[in-house]
Amino acid sequence: MLRVLCLLRPWRPLRARGCASDGAAGGSEIQVRALAGPDQGITEILMNRPRARNALGNVFVSELLETLAQLREDRQVRVLLFRSGVKGVFCAGADLKEREQMSEAEVGVFVQRLRGLMNDIAAFPAPTIAAMDGFALGGGLELALACDLRVAASSAIMGLIETTRGLLPGAGGTQRLPRCLGVALAKELIFTGRRLSGTEAHALGLVNHAVAQNKEGDAAYHRARALAQEILPQVDIASGMAIEGMCYAQNIPTRDRLEGMAAFREKRPPTFVGE
Q1: CA-to-CA distance for 252 and 157, rounded, in angstroms?
Q2: Is 94 part of the annotated catalytic residue set?
Q3: Which regions of 48-185 does DSSP assign to beta strands (E)?
Q4: Given CA atoms 47, 89, 174, 210 in this order, what sign does their dihedral have?
Q5: Of 126, 136, 30, which is closest to residue 71 (Cα–Cα)?
Q6: Phi-psi label, residue 146: left if phi above 0, alpha if psi -120 to 50, beta otherwise
Q7: Which of 102, 79, 107, 97 is nearest to 171 (CA)?
Q8: Is 244 a catalytic residue?
């Protein structure tokens, strides 16, 4: 169960400069909140574009890119959690209404930005978790696939559905889905554009956990946050690298290291003595 005594800091909006927003009440489409108290180290990104079901439009992508760039430099971020502020939706994929207004050259540039966004998520220095409490279609699933871990409500619907719209996954889906599920199954899901429930996705290994949805519509978020709490005690990457360096320094002068190197050079089994 989630610890109810967690202290919450307010959501902090982040606006992409020079862009109009489709966020709730005309606000930012991306908000950030760092948890405090016993959950200090967990940072949440709230996707909040209700009129477009969190579709990946220009403003949305710009704000998310800027948010990730800022958080990447924040060493207090130990776990990054992606969630939705729109009930029943994680991310509905590309904003096709916006795309219809783009020239071919503009589409190409925008898809490259989408790939860059997914790569930024995949390369984020702290563990990332997607809390999928609703639809995660097309680019929405690609965003979740870019995360390290995925938690879904059993009733959530997800799929790379681009082929049903005359398109193909263009933001890493053709690469990350087969690495997650295997080539043959990934091909089947992409070729057919099939949609999976959270329960089906869990059975295939596409998501780490599937949970029954609650009345508030945020069951996956609560499970993802509990998972983030489990990760918090683990050492951060900077400290881990420092520890590894100290251990390696202790290994350098040992007799066994020299014996191992000599055995490799002489093509014989090493004889270790524990010194």
Answers
A1: 53
A2: yes
A3: 79-84, 89-91, 128-132, 135-137, 149-153, 157-159
A4: positive
A5: 126
A6: alpha
A7: 107
A8: no
Distance of alpha carbon 170 from alpha carbon 191, whole angstroms: 14
pLDDT tens across 77-125, in order?
999 999 999 999 999 998 888 888 888 898 889 899 999 999 999 999 9
Predicted confidence (pLDDT) per residue in 31-79, tens digit: 999 999 989 999 999 999 998 899 999 999 999 999 999 999 998 999 9
- Chain Cα centroid distance, residue 208: 12
Q: Are 34 and 28 in contact (CB under 8 A)?
A: no
- Catalytic residue from among 44, 63, 162, 200: 162
First to last CA, the chain: 47
Active site residue 139: yes
Here the tokens at position 53 are 């079901």
Measured between alpha carbons, how far is 131 from 208 in angstroms, rounded to an integer? 11
* Cα–Cα distance measured from residue 45 to residue 38, given in angstroms and rounded to the nearest whole number: 19
Q: Is 216 a catalytic residue?
A: no
- Residue 203 near residue 185, CB atoms below 8 Å: no
Rounded-to-integer distance, Cα 77 and Cα 37, Å = 14
The one catalytic residue among 130, 142, 200, 219: 142
Q: Which DSSP state fits 50?
A: G
